[in-house]
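Journal club prep, notes for RB
We'll compare a predicted complex against what the paper describes. Inputs for the magnesium ion case:
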Amino acid sequence: MNKQVLVIEDNEDIARLIKLQLSDLNCNVKLVFDGTRGAEEIAAKTYDLLILDVMLPGVDGMEILRRVRARPDYMPVLMLTAKSSELDRVLGLEMGADDYLTKPFSVLELCARVKAIFRRVTAMGSAQASDSALVRRGELSLDPERREVQVAGRSVDLTAKEFDLLLYFARSPGRVHTREQLLSQVWGYSHSGYEHTVNSHINRLRAKIERNPNEPEYIQTVWGVGYKFAGSGKGEAA
Amino acid sequence: MSRSLSARLGLMLMGLFALLAAVLVATSQQMFELQRLPHLAAELALGSIAFTLAAALLVFHFFTRRLRQLEQALDRFGVADLIAPVRLAWARPDGDEIDRLAFNFGALTLRIAEQLRMLERTDRERRELLANVSHDLRTPLASMQGYLEMLLLRHGSLPPEEERNYLEVAAKHTERLGRLVNELFELTKLEADRVELQKEVFPLAELAQDVAQKLKLRAHTRGVEIVTHFGAASPSVTADIGMVERVLENLIDNAVRHTPEGGKVSVDLAAVGERVEVCVADTGRGIAASDLPYVFDRYYRADRTEGEKATHAGLGLAITQRIVALHGGAIRVESRIGEGTRFIFDLPAAPRWPAAREAVSF
Ligand SMILES: Nc1ncnc2c1ncn2[C@@H]1O[C@H](COP(=O)(O)OP(=O)(O)OP(=O)(O)O)[C@@H](O)[C@H]1O
Ligand SMILES: [Mg+2]
C-alpha cells in the first residue's frame, strides 16, 4: 500500500523536489505551501509522514508540530530547517520531531531519512506486539511496555530517548557498541554533526542509574572501541 | 599651594593691593599736602577706577589665556578629524581647575582618537571579511551556474558521460558552498557572542575516543594512524559536548590532513590543577614560523596547495579558538617544519562527582 505523505513547505521548488523524490519511494505526496492550510490539513486527516518546514507563513512549523503531538495517534514528523543553530535542532527533537534536516540537504539524504522513519515505525509496531517482556539486569529492571525503570526498587525518571538507549543496551549485555552504531540503532539515523548527542545521553543516563558515575557498573567504556552494558553479574535472567 | 582658581585669584589680588599700598605710601608725602587736599578725593576716585580696570584686565587676561588655548586646541582636534589628541604643555592633573580641565580634555581626546582608530580597524577587517566571503561564495556559485547553464544550452546534444561529468562538477560545488555557509554562520554566531553553552560534566577521554574513532577510517585511507592513550582514571570536564567535539574534530582532522603516509597523530589528556589540557600532536609537515602567528586567523591557510584551497576555507581554527575562549581556556600551537605540530588547549575540570550524589543510598 502506498504511504500518504504531507509536505508543508513554503518554497515551492523545494516542495516539488521532495514530491518528485518521494514518488519514487511509492508515496502519495500532497503539497501545502503555507502554515494555515497545513494546520487545517493535519486537523482533518492522518498521514503516514509529515515533512514540515520550521519557518512558514501563517501558522509556523513549531506550532504545527505541537498540534500534531497533541493528537492521540502517532504521526511521524520530519522537520526541515534553514537555521542550523543547535537550539533549533534540539528543540525540534525534544518536542518530538522524529528527525530533522537542515537546508541545504541532499535528496539522497532525504530519501534515506524517510526510509529510516518508515522502517522505525514498522519496527515499533511489531516490537510492541512481541517484545514487551520485563528486562532485569542486576539491580536494574526495565518495563518496555510501561516505559518504566527501577534501580534497586526505586523508580527513576528517564526521558524517552534515555529509556530507548538504556533498553537497547540492556537487551544486549556484554556486546560492545560504537557511538555511530548507537546513533543509528537508537536514534534511527546517522547524521554527522549530531553524534555527540549519544555522549550527552550516556552521560545523563549514568548520572541517573549509576551508584558512582565515575566508575559505572552498567554502561561501561571499552577504551578505543565504544560502550557496553555490563549486567552487574547478579540476576542476569530476563 | 595655588591648587585652585580662587586661591590664585586671592594671591593675585593681594599682590595688587600690596602694590597699591606701596604706591600710596611712596606718594603720600606730596599727596597729603594741605593745598592738594581738595583734589585728593577726585584723584583717589579716578585712581581707584583706573586701578580696578587694570586689575580686572590683568586677571581676566591671565585666566582666559589658557581657556583660549584650550579652545583653539579643541578646534584643531575637530578639524583634524578627531585623530590627533589635544596636548597642552601646561595641562596638569594637579593644577587649578583650568589646568585640570585641559588635562581631562586631553585624556578624553586621546580616548576618542584611540577608539576611532579601533573602529576604523574593525571596519576595515569587516570589509576584508566581506570581500573574502563574497569571493569564496562566488567561486563555487560561478562554477555551478556555468555548468548548469551549459547543461541547459546543450541539453540533448551532449554525450551522456559528458553530461554526467558536468552535473558532478555542479554537485561538488554545491557541497562546498553549503559547507562554507555553515562554517561562516557558525563563526559569526560565535563571534557575536550569541551562543549559549550547554554545559555538562562529562569524561573528556570518552568524547576524544569517539571523535578519534570517527576520523580513523579517513586517517587509515591516508595511511595515518591515530593513537590515543586513555584509561579509566581520565579527568572529567564541564563543557559543551557538541562544541568540544567540534574542536577535537577540527584539530584531529587538520593533523591527519597535514601528515604524510606512515605518520602518526596522537591525542593526550592531562589534568593540570583546575584545568584539563588536551594535546593533539602529529608527525606531519609542520607550519613555518612565519605562518604560525596567523593560523588562528580567519581564512588563513598555511598550506596553499590547490586541493586544500578547493575544499577548506581556513575557518576551522578561528572557530576552534573562539570555542576554547568561550570555555575560559586558551589554545596554543608549537610546530617545526618537517617534524610535526602540536596544538594544546585547556578546558575547566569538573569536580570528581557532586558530593550530594554520594549521600543517596541505593
Ligand atoms: N596539524 C597541522 N599541520 C600543519 N598545518 C596545519 C595543521 N593544522 C592547521 N594547519 C594549517 O593551518 C591552516 C588553518 O587551519 P584551519 O583548520 O583554520 O583551516 P582549514 O583546515 O584549512 O579549513 P577548515 O577547517 O575551514 O576546513 C590550515 O590551512 C593549515 O595550513
Ligand atoms: Mg580545519
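Talking point for the session: The two ends of chain B are 79 Å apart (CA to CA).
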